[in-house]
Amino acid sequence: MTSSALLGWLLGLAVVPPLLVSLISLYPIRRYARQLGLIANPGGHSTHTKVTPLGGGIGIWLGIMLPMVAGTLIVCGFDLGLGKLLDLPESVTVFFSGIRSRLPQLWSLLGAGTVLFVLGIWDDRRGAPVRLRLAVEFGVAAFVVYGMGFGLTAFIGAPSLTNAMSVVWIVAVINSFNMLDNMDGLSGGVAAIIAASMAAVMLTTPSASGSMPQLFVAGLLLCVCGSLLGFLWHNRPPAKLFMGDGGSYLVGFLIAVSMLMATFATAPDASVQRPHAVLAPLCAMAIPMYDMGTVLWIRIREGRSIFVGDRSHFSHRLVDLGLSRTQAVLTIHLVTATCGLASLLLVHVTVLQAAAVLGIVACMLLLVVILESTGWRKESND
C-alpha cells in the first residue's frame, strides 16, 4: 500500500467515526442538558448573554471512547474471523499485532482521561474545589509519568527533574485549554488545530526503533481531532453548546500525554538526531501557553486570585482592541495554525534552520505583544 493510501485509511478510521459520534450524540445532550444539570448561566466573568447547555465534553468523550471500543473489538477479534466480515486489506491488518501489544497502554490512558472527564463534569454541575481539582490533576499526571513511564525528552541527564517537569507539563496543558474555553469555537478549534498539526508531525517522524511513522500516537491525536470537529459543529458562533470543564480536561490531558509518548528527535532517515525537534510541542502549544501565562501575570499583578475567572484572556484583549468576537477567535486560530506549521518544520530541519523557525514563532508572539501594548497604553491613560 502506498503512503497516500495508508494515510487515507488512517484518516477514515481515526477521524470520521469520532466526528460522527460526537456530532450526533451532542443533539440529545443539548436537549436534555437542563435535566443533567449542565447549564451555563449568563453573568459573572462570562460574556455569553443567554442560558447555554454545558455538556459538550460528553460528546467529545463519547466520540473518543466509542470508536476506541469498536477498534479494540475489531483488532482483538480479527483472528477469530471478524476480519473476513470486514474485508480489510492486508496492508491495514498488518498493523493489528502492534496495536494489540499497545492496547493495555491505550486503555490505561483513556481510563486516566476518563477520571479527569468525570472530575470536569462534576465541576460543571456543582463546582469542584480548586484544591481537589489540582490534586486529581497532579495525581493523574503522576500516574502517567511514574506509573506508565512517559516523560519529556529534555536531554538534561536528570531523570527526577525530567519527571517533575513532565507532571507539570500535563497539568499546565490541561489548564491552558480550560482557561482558553472562553469564546465560541475558541478552545475546541485551537485544540483541533494542535492535534492535527502534531498528528502530521507523528506521520512524518519515525519512531526511535524503526523507519515507520508513529501511527499509534498519530491515530490517538486524529481521534481527538475528529471528536473535536464534531463538537465544533455545535460550538460554532453563536454556540448552541459549550465544551465545559469535562471536555477541556479530557482534551488537554490526551494532547499533553500524546506529546510525551512521541519521539521527535529522529529524522526521517532514522540515522540523524535532531535534538531541537523536542521543542515542537512548545511551538504547537505557544498560544494556549501564552494565554495562560499572560492571564496569570495580569491576575498576580492586580493582586487577584489566580483561580478566579475574569475577562483578561488573550481573546478578550483582542476584542478590547476593536476586533469582533468572531474575528478574535479566527485570529487566534490563524496564529495557532502558524505555530503548528512551525512545529512540523522543526522536526525536519537542521539546527540553523530550526533557529530561523523558532525565530519566526518568537517574532509572531512579539508582534502580538506589541499590538496588545496599544490597549495597555489606552488603559493606563484612562
List its salient traits.
382 residues, globular, 17 helices
3D structure, described in words:
- The protein is mainly α and 382 residues long.
- Helix content is 71%, strand content 1%.
- The protein contains 17 helices and two strands.
- It has helices spanning 3-14, 16-31, 33-36, 56-77, 82-86, 90-93, 96-126, 130-147, 159-180, 186-203, 215-235, 244-261, 280-284, 286-301, 314-320, 325-346, 351-381; strands spanning 39-40, 52-53.
- It has a two-stranded antiparallel ribbon with strand order 1-2.
- α4 (56-77) packs antiparallel against α11 and α10 (186-203) runs parallel beside α16 (325-346).
- It is globular and about 60 Å long.
- The relative contact order is 0.13.
Q: What would you call the shape?
A: globular
- The proportion of residues forming helix, as a percent range, comes to over 70%
Strands of the widest sheet, in order across it, are 1-2
* Average pLDDT score: 86
Treating each run of at least 4 consecutive H or I residues as one helix, how many helices? Answer: 17
Order of helices and strands: HHHEEHHHHHHHHHHHHHH
Please outline the major beta sheet: 2 strands, antiparallel
Gyration radius (Cα, Å) is 21 Å
Poorly predicted residue ranges? none
The total strand number stands at 2
Structural class: mainly alpha
How far apart, in Å, are the first and last alpha carbons?
65 Å
Strand content: under 5%
Brief summary of the model shown:
The chain is mostly helical and 382 residues long. It has 17 helices and 2 strands.
Topology:
Layout: H1 3-14, H2 16-31, H3 33-36, E1 39-40, E2 52-53, H4 56-77, H5 82-86, H6 90-93, H7 96-126, H8 130-147, H9 159-180, H10 186-203, H11 215-235, H12 244-261, H13 280-284, H14 286-301, H15 314-320, H16 325-346, H17 351-381
Antiparallel strand pairs: 1-2
